């Protein structure tokens, strides 16, 4: 009889995969990931059918974790700028506190191994934020950019902000605020 799968082992494999993908990108091997997770490579394949399955599950796991952080305390009924500011700060704080996950997500986002279905599921997780952007654009409060483009602008400026905060932690508040202002001006037109 097969032993039941352990959430702890699955999570250890995903955490190891995030670290290894952050370091090595797409060239990371399942053997290296298994070694980092301190499991046999065969055990890895007990939890994930193949490397592509592992990468897609990692992508979704990272997106889910980011979503949980960004939507925690999300002020659903607040003015758009306040909602955007909340999402911004949560995203920047997440990236600063989880550098390996941040880097792994950036690499996976560019990977051709991530399926369209995984990308859609990952994007759908941020529905409240996307809905606010679409609603504001329809009301003429934001530039009429597609939500994925707004997300890409946010990501680019947040990455720059995270880099500056990491290099200049004494000026973290200044860079976080300046990054948000740049993002807001880009999507709201000033």
UniProtKB/TrEMBL annotation:
Residues 7-66 form the HTH tetR-type domain. Keywords: DNA-binding. GO terms for molecular function: DNA binding. SUPFAM superfamilies: Homeodomain-like. It comes from the Bacteria. InterPro entries: Homeodomain-like_sf, HTH-type_TetR-like_transc_reg, HTH_TetR. The keyword DNA-binding applies. The keyword DNA-binding applies. Residues 29-48 bind DNA. This is DNA-binding transcriptional regulator, AcrR family.
